[in-house]
């Protein structure tokens, strides 16, 4: 019988349990997938802690790659034996095998390994919609990307550099600054000791930036607004430091008629056509060498609790993959 990480209550990493599970046969519209590699994302810690509630008892994780073992009635998008990957859908990727809605699966092309697909799906597609759809960055523009040495940051900054943008990245340490520079950042701000808005003004000659991509949340939100030029866009897509506290929307007016959005990957890949197009853009960028996926941390799936400790303790850089 296959095993999976399960949780019956929210809390710290200690609530994660490695247990046998009954997977069963796929029903209408479902596929059974045998995982070969499982991706890890910061949102997994939100689900575990209860910041973003999920049904309990249940599984955890939203990204993986593997092989289709069986499909249920009505499934035409994939067939047994196909190499596939996914990001999103019902939590449960921290498992050796699982059932999943088949429409969430995309084919992994030749030339891309399973562990790369597992590491890139959520972070790669997030990067894609952020820089190509939420705010389509153009060559010559200067942008600010927080957590530039994180999983999304390393991918997005490479892509931004290939587009021809000037990339300002924030990181928490000198070691992460070197990594960010090696992955496309033209300028790096050490957020633990530098004034972010002041440095952005200095770098841009007072002009500031048209867009800020912020996955940090509470600790950087107001500073991010101060980095924007009039009519600039604040893209808040994560809460690594905690949820942004309620604020008077008049701040947006006072700081230059700013725009604010809180996007999610689910909205940008809600249709099968959008999902396939987004994934294809990511895979094409990898195959072309625009994005180089570096899996810097590997763990066994049974060690998921330690993965979360390391992730929340800021001991990881870039992509993490667990092997069933």
From TrEMBL:
CDD domains given in the database record: QOR2
Keywords: NADP, Oxidoreductase
Primary enzyme class: oxidoreductase
SMART domains from the UniProt entry: PKS_ER
Superkingdom, taxonomy of origin: Bacteria
The EC number(s) this enzyme carries: 1.6.5.5
Ranges where the Enoyl reductase (ER) domain occurs: 11-322
GO molecular function: mRNA 3'-UTR AU-rich region binding; NADPH binding; quinone reductase (NADPH) activity; zinc ion binding
One GO CC term, this protein: cytosol
Keyword Lipid biosynthesis part of the UniProt annotation: no
Record bears the keyword NADP: yes
SUPFAM superfamilies according to UniProt: GroES-like, NAD(P)-binding Rossmann-fold domains
PANTHER family cross-referenced by the UniProt entry: QUINONE OXIDOREDUCTASE PIG3-RELATED, QUINONE OXIDOREDUCTASE-RELATED
Cited NCBIfam families: PRK10754.1
UniProt name for this protein: Quinone oxidoreductase 1
Gene name tied to this protein: qorA_2
């Amino acid at each position: 019988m296959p095993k999976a990480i399960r949780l019956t209550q929210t809390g710290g990493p200690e609530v994660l349990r490695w247990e046998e599970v009954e997977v069963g046969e796929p029903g209408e519209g479902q596929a059974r997938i045998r995982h070969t590699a499982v991706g890890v994302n910061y949102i997994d810690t939100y689900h575990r802690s209860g910041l973003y509630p999920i049904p309990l008892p249940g599984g955890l994780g939203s990204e993986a790659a593997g092989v289709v073992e069986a499909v249920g009635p009505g499934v035409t998008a994939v067939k047994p034996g196909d190499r596939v990957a996914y990001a999103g859908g019902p939590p449960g990727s921290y498992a050796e095998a699982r059932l999943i809605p088949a429409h969430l699966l995309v084919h992994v092309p030749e030339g891309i390994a399973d562990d790369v697909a597992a590491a890139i799906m959520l972070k790669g597609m997030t990067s894609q919609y952020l820089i190509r759809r939420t705010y389509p960055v153009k060559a010559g523009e200067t942008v600010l990307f927080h957590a530039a040495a994180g999983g999304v940051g390393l991918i997005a900054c490479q892509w931004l550099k290939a587009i021809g943008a000037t990339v300002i990245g924030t990181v928490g340490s000198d070691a992460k600054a070197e990594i960010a520079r090696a992955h496309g950042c033209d300028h790096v701000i050490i957020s633990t000791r530098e004034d972010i808005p002041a440095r952005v003004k200095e770098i841009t000659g007072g002009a500031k930036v048209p867009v800020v991509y912020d996955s940090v949340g509470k600790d950087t939100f107001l500073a991010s607004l101060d980095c924007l030029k009039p009519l600039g866009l604040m893209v808040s897509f994560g809460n690594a430091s905690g949820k942004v506290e309620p604020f008077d929307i008049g701040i947006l007016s006072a700081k230059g008629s700013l725009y604010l959005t809180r996007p999610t990957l689910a909205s940008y890949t809600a249709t099968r056509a959008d999902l396939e197009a987004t994934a294809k853009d990511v895979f094409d960028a990898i195959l072309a060498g625009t994005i180089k996926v570096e899996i810097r941390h590997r763990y066994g799936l049974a060690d998921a609790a330690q993965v979360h400790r390391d992730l929340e303790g800021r001991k990881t850089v870039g992509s993490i993959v667990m092997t069933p």
